[in-house]
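Project outcomes to date are best conveyed with an example. Our students and postdoctoral researchers have been running inverse folding experiments weekly, and each run begins with a structure described purely in C-alpha cells. The record below, which covers 323 residues, was selected by the lab manager from last quarter's runs and is presented without edits.
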C-alpha cells in the first residue's frame, strides 16, 4: 500500500516536472488548457472589456476574442487611431463579426473621471458588462534604482496601480449591484509581479502592488461566489508595434536583423490564448512564459535559498558591474 502511495506521488512529481520542462505556462493552467473549459464556450455571448488594447497583449486578447460566437468586445486605450486599427484587423480576422460587436472606447486611464462614464457607455451600448480585463500598463524606464526620480515612481503607480484599482472598484460595484449575475475581474500583472527584477523599477513594484490589491479582494469575494478575480502573470511578450515601422534606411523593421526575436519571447497571440483559458476556467493566478522562466519561478517560490544562490551566480554573466 505504502509503495503504491509513494509511486503515485513520484509519478505526480514526474508529470509536474515534465510539464515544467516542456510547457509555457504553470502546471495548473496547463492542465486546464488540456482538460478544462475552452475559450469558445465560456466567452460565448459575453461582453468583454479590454483596456490597453491598442497593442501587445491587449491587442492579442481582442484578436483572440473575435473568434468567439456572439461575443461583444470593448477595446480601450488612449490612442483612438490605434484602436480603430485593431478593430479593423479584428473584423478582418472574422468576417462574420458585425461592426457593432466591437466598441472602440478611447480614454486615458489616469483620467479618473472618465472611468464611470466609460462603464455607463458600455452598459448603454450592450446592456451589460461580464468581464473586465485590465491590461493597461506602462513599462517606464530601465534605470538604476538610485537614479530614477521619485516623480517616475509616482507616475507609474498612478497608471499601473491606482487608475486600475479605481476602474476595477467602479466595475466591482456594478457587478455587486447586478444581482444574480456573474462578473469577472482579470488583471494583467507580470512575472515581474512575483519576484524582483533588476533595473526594472518602478515597473516591478507596481506589479507587486496589484497582487496585494487583487489577492485581498479575492478573499473578500469568497462568500459571493459569483464574482471572480484572476491575476495573469506573463513573462516577456512580443508586441508587433514595430513590425510595420520603418527603420532609418527605409527597410521595414520586421525585415531587418534586429527583429530576429529571441526564441524565448512569447507571441501576443499565445499569451492571449493562455490568459483567456485562465479566465475561462476562473483560475486565481496563471504564469506564462517560455523556458527557462518558469522553472526559475517555481524555484523562487518553493526554494528561495537555491533561487537566491542561482540568481546571484547568473547575474555575474548578465550584468556589467560598475564599481
Ligand atoms: C466569427 O464570428 C461569428 C459571429 O460572432 C461566430 O459565430 C463565429 O464562430 C466566428 N468564427 C470564427 C472562425 O472566428
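After processing, the design step wrote out the following sequence:
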Amino acid at each position: 500500500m505504502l509503495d503504491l502511495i509513494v509511486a503515485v506521488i513520484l509519478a505526480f512529481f514526474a508529470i509536474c516536472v515534465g510539464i515544467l520542462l516542456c510547457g509555457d505556462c504553470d502546471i495548473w493552467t496547463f492542465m486546464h488548457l488540456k482538460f478544462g473549459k475552452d475559450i469558445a464556450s465560456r466567452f460565448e455571448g459575453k461582453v468583454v472589456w479590454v483596456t490597453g488594447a491598442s497593442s501587445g497583449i491587449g491587442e492579442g486578447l481582442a484578436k483572440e476574442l473575435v473568434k468567439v460566437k456572439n461575443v461583444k468586445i470593448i477595446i480601450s486605450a488612449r490612442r483612438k487611431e490605434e484602436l480603430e486599427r485593431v478593430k479593423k484587423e479584428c473584423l478582418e480576422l472574422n468576417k462574420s463579426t458585425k461592426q457593432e460587436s466591437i466598441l472602440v472606447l478611447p480614454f486615458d486611464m489616469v483620467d479618473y473621471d472618465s472611468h464611470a462614464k466609460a462603464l455607463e457607455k458600455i452598459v448603454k451600448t450592450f446592456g451589460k458588462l461580464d468581464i473586465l480585463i485590465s491590461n493597461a500598463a506602462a513599462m517606464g524606464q530601465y534605470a538604476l534604482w538610485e537614479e530614477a526620480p521619485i516623480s517616475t515612481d509616482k507616475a507609474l503607480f498612478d497608471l499601473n496601480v491606482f487608475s486600475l484599482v479605481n476602474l476595477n472598484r467602479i466595475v466591482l460595484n456594478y457587478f455587486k449591484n447586478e444581482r444574480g449575475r456573474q462578473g469577472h475581474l482579470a488583471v494583467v500583472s507580470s512575472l515581474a509581479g512575483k519576484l524582483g527584477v533588476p533595473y526594472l523599477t518602478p515597473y516591478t513594484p507596481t506589479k507587486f502592488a496589484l497582487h496585494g490589491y487583487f489577492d485581498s479582494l479575492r478573499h473578500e469575494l469568497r462568500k459571493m461566489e459569483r464574482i471572480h478575480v484572476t491575476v495573469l502573470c506573463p513573462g516577456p511578450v512580443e508586441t508587433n508595434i514595430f513590425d510595420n515601422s520603418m527603420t532609418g534606411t527605409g527597410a521595414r523593421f520586421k525585415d531587418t536583423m534586429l527583429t530576429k526575436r529571441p526564441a524565448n519571447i512569447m507571441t501576443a497571440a499565445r499569451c492571449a490564448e493562455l490568459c483567456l483559458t485562465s479566465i475561462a476556467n476562473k483560475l486565481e493566478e496563471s504564469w506564462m512564459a517560455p523556458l527557462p522562466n518558469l522553472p526559475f519561478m517555481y524555484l523562487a517560490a518553493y526554494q528561495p535559498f537555491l533561487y537566491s544562490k542561482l540568481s546571484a551566480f547568473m547575474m555575474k554573466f548578465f550584468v556589467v558591474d560598475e564599481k
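Residues 67, 69-70, 94, 96-97 surround 2-acetamido-2-deoxy-beta-D-glucopyranose (CB under 6 Å). DSSP finds eleven helices and seven strands in the chain. The training component of this project remains on track.
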